[in-house]
Amino acid sequence: MPKTFPLAAIALSLALVGCETMKTMDVSKLSDVGGTAMKAMSLSDGDIATMSDQSCAAMDQKNQVAPANSKYTVRLNQVIKSMPTTINNRPANYKVYVTKDVNAWAMANGCIRVYSGLMDLMNDDELRGVIGHEIGHVALGHSKARMQTAYAASAARGLASAVGGVAGQLSQSQAGDLAEKFVNAQFSQSQESAADGYSFDLLGERKLERKGLVTGFQKLASLSGGASSGSSLLSSHPPSTERAAAMQKRLDSGK
């Protein structure tokens, strides 16, 4: 029986390659793109972890990582003392990027990066709430799906295929391109809300202050009008004001 492709995967492929490309694309190229989308969606957890390892390393090389004696690293180590040391059975690896940008993200391999601009903006409770949110994206499988989409987008734009059952070794430029697409991609509204809820529950289970989820989102809302295009944290859906209200409602309800 011939292999068929799910409609959603084909739709994703067409969206990724763009309208201009479609004008000149022949049938064989369309088939290649469809295959890329299928391969991206079928990446194993091991593939995702390997690609995340390489992408995270590329981001670490590109950015200024705060040294161990930095005030940012010292503070982050204090903030995460009561936070998970493993996520989905993978060690959590926390580091700070020294930059004025306000952002944070986490990959499925446990790579968690917090920007010093975010740390300057937020108090410890607020920072912990954001970190719990990013951990939620990993624990709930959102980061895996985001890497799949980033891979499909990268490959559809001409990157050499680096996956064949087990992730192969990406070149530095490929890993960097993949990392940028991952970091700048947006989660869906339902994913953002679910990660907020995960953070709220995580903080509650560990008897940590949850009010920071409210005030933290309020601070992000005040900045969102002037957010840089590279900050996925500020370009949130739903808007930060709505997320703050949702967290306040849960606090008021005691649940």
From TrEMBL:
Residues 223-236 have a biased composition (Low complexity). One of its GO terms (molecular function) is metal ion binding. One of its GO terms (biological process) is proteolysis involved in protein catabolic process. Keywords: Hydrolase, Metal-binding, Metalloprotease, Protease, Zinc. Pfam families: Peptidase_M48. One of its GO terms (cellular component) is membrane. This is Peptidase. Residues 75-250 form the Peptidase M48 domain. It comes from the Bacteria. The lineage of its organism: Bacteria, Pseudomonadati, Pseudomonadota, Betaproteobacteria, Burkholderiales. Binds 1 zinc ion per subunit. PROSITE patterns: PROKAR_LIPOPROTEIN. Its cofactor is Zn(2+). InterPro entries: Mito/Outer_Membr_Metalloprot (IPR051156), Peptidase_M48 (IPR001915). Belongs to the peptidase M48 family. Residues 223-255 are annotated as: Disordered.
